[in-house]
């Protein structure tokens, strides 16, 4: 191969030098030359290993995270105008597609936006009641945030507005500090303050490029958490569906079921009938009609709105509200009022509001980025997580100033938006304007809307949050991930939303720790017909080399937590092999232990002490320790700790070279013996 | 090499088959044969990678920890007598050396034991006052635990008894629940209960083979913690040395200094004079005389006892106690009384006692195993951590029943034992008997011993706990470890002992997490003259291969916390390379991205989703993704997730093979073009 030539020229030069100095018989000189050559090559390669440049420190690692920002700032200094345009395009992604926008695309967006609005209006009202806010807050949240997002966000499919999980999170966490039943105004103010904090955190994450924070909820944890949240939300809806008046504030399944069984005598059969019949209608259109006949997709998207209109008419005509069917009653219409003065930064709950804001910010971002990315991949464009976070942050900060609570990308509505054929974020604008018009003119028409129908709208959206096939897949591929998933699920269902989250994150990180410090070792053998070495269990055809034990640490870190265990294990392995070999033949006794360090990313001072102990223990048992393929930080630290000197420089680039070096010294030893 | 023959015979057989079927010209057939051969070899190797056996699950991993125990139980069934003897030898290590024991060794042990006792008596009394117990409890603790350890422990050098750090830990944590000044009896009972729990935990760790728990305190953390504890202990001694009467219960430097400055007017100059002059005397013998003249070692070991005797005489003769010099007064003499009825398992503090017991158990074990192992390595024998834990546990349980508080191996006294020439654990027995005799007959003589002299004995032992050269070494080798070290130190000195410990453990594990999920990638290049690939930064001589990007993940786990970041980074790298290459020549555009998975120990479902996303993103940019050298669990999960199918089986054993496969398909593509 082309790349190996450099080494060859060097070696031929060396061969000449050797020939000039010695001049033995031709055959001898050839052999000598070859030996010398291979030895020089080996020395050269060992120099590569030993004389590495100093690895980058902690500071330069941090720097790489911010380098894109730095480059941009650097560009402004050089070429102000093009750099400014590029920055504007970064902040306002629509600038990059607005030139290609045309009437056809606009038509598609209008259709998608109207479809979205028809689903969004009943859902927004429902989610507002789930968040224990007045219904208009849900509608407000479907106006301002989508407008901001559509000029700052880069996703073309996502549908912005209130979502079920965030609404549940808000009500379950905030009602501990302000009871919405006792003091609804203070509760609303606290929700708005939390929204402001959530937006600030999101924007800060985006600016500081902390996008990776969203990744701390693993895929498995999200699947479990979402399913658990869906169950909890479903249970909460039973109150409205059954028309109960008393209900627990807890969200866990046991409290809810006890509460229901206690107040079951107050249930209202009319509420239940209206709610459940329309629930079946929505499910039927969504899961039967829309799947059978693609053309009926619009009907299924409109079904919630249709249900609201029909049920409102029914209640209005029959005056069922006089028979105990709870209705929405007055919804404050008109534009979003300002809420700057509702934000509370001096209340006793401000610290709590910030904490809740952080949790809500992360959950909202996780949902939005998950949904945004899956549709972006489908259409073949890229989403920048940090940019999305900034857009979400600005939209929620603005929202908190205009009476909106936390908005994010909704799973169910984004799917509807996509299916309705949206082209750009303009569909969000169409939706926002439609909701705004409804707020202005049609809120009075919702006076007789039964609360039960809102419950059935929410219930119908829940199956989309439960992903059984994904859970099955997780079980099949990764049992530990499945544990995270079930822990999140049961934590949410049986204890509380926060505990579920905490369990999921805790187990995920415990898994990382266990995986990285697992004190395993594996014996390596040579793969037949190659110079490769593999785990003898993974590759049963790998062959042992007599007199040599090759071990690899089954961990990326040799550190305080596993170094001593691994030291003891390698020593045991070596002594065991020595005993076994001693029975077979004395010559093949293990004399060399090669530690393959190729997958050790880092070591610490504790582990260097363990290696030193291993070295002296092996020496006292007549074995030598050699290292193969240490990585950058590892060899750097070993050199600083003078460990390389202690093992007389037995550090090699490959296992093969370590073996060769050992054979050479053994043969030399043998020949010196015969000569004597 | 010998091992490659198998592959060769197979290939010649194959070559024959090929020749029979086609029969072209000789040169052609040779080339074809070779191509076919190398292809078959490649297929075979890829089968090795893809058709691995199922990796062991979680359960079998746990099983390996207990396998030694299982083997032993299995042996009993087969050969009862030899197995029983081996078990007895395991439990009572002296059985294995008692046959070789002789008079010479016994003489050495007696000398060492007497030296040890002379140091141990003043230290024990001092540490008991540090633990806020009556002085006799320190002496009791130097009798029973050393006796038990000498028949169960396997270290021959360790000196067992009360130690400074554990005494400090006990008093600082227990006095929160019972004030020793207000209710000394209840306080003592709580200390004994904590001792019982500590012993139980230690024995349980030993039996359950949880020896690795001790490793959770990294070397760096211990260095910092010990130095911090030494400072705190030194500060505490200022009370006795200055003869102050009022003193804070807090251990942090700020509280202690404030407290001293407040009550400085009550200081007693006589106390200070006696204490400090003997402190200087002890230090002088220890650090000057003993180092200059090896023969004076005995004097330095005896210096504390001499100081006690001299100062007691001085106080007795001058009746300095009437001038405010605090004296020990009455010490209860006689044998250890039983304390079974002092253990409290129904008190309101039992849960706290268990918690403190756990912390103390771990700290005591850490100190004992560290000191025991360092001397074992020096003399060339091995210590089994689990066995040591069992011995320590039994000794502390027995201790708690006989009025002893937590005992462990002492740094300073072990060094003295070693220097005095101890041969076996018999020196501990000699020491225990000597202490017992003193308890029986000489406690009355200590009536006039000034408290200040105990403080100076403790103070003189502290420099041994501060290891500056080790701290320097840690700074040089590992900056992050140094952070752990300083955090432990400042935590202990400025806040409290527990906070220091917590900080050290917390930072250590945070470091593990950061190291294992760091979202780094590195570009690989071919090392000149070899088929090896290395990080282009670590090996600046490594060369890029045109048209191919080779990346390795700088982490052992591709998991929820870093998968997405890494996916984005690899994509960016690939697009960047493509753009660069496009300027140079269109032919050399990156078409293949090889992901070297050799150091990925595990993946999870989140990361598989990220890999799928990466694959489709690369495809849409005209690049293909190939994997090289995936490990056992990784390839197993990728197969289960059907990812191997998605990338059309482009999984190879080595990077070289992946490149070759790509070149072959490229050439074939080129030739088919020319033919058309």
UniProtKB/TrEMBL annotation, chains A, B:
All copies of domain STAS, residue ranges: 558-662
PANTHER family found in the cross-reference section: SULFATE TRANSPORTER
GO terms assigned for molecular function: secondary active sulfate transmembrane transporter activity
Compositional bias ranges of the Basic and acidic residues kind: 1-11
Regions crossing the membrane: 158-174, 186-208, 220-238, 270-289, 296-317, 356-376, 388-408, 445-466, 486-514
Topology in membrane: Multi-pass membrane protein
Name of this chain's protein: Low affinity sulfate transporter 3-like
A GO CC annotation given for this chain: membrane
Disordered: annotated span: 1-29
Organism this protein belongs to: Nicotiana sylvestris (Wood tobacco)
Compartments reported by the entry: Membrane
Keyword tags: Membrane, Transmembrane, Transmembrane helix, Transport
One Pfam short name: STAS
Comp. bias (Polar residues): 12-29
InterPro entries in the record: S04_transporter_CS, SLC26A/SulP_dom, SLC26A/SulP_fam, STAS_dom, STAS_dom_sf
Domain of life per record: Eukaryota
Chief subcellular location: membrane
Entry keyword Transmembrane: yes
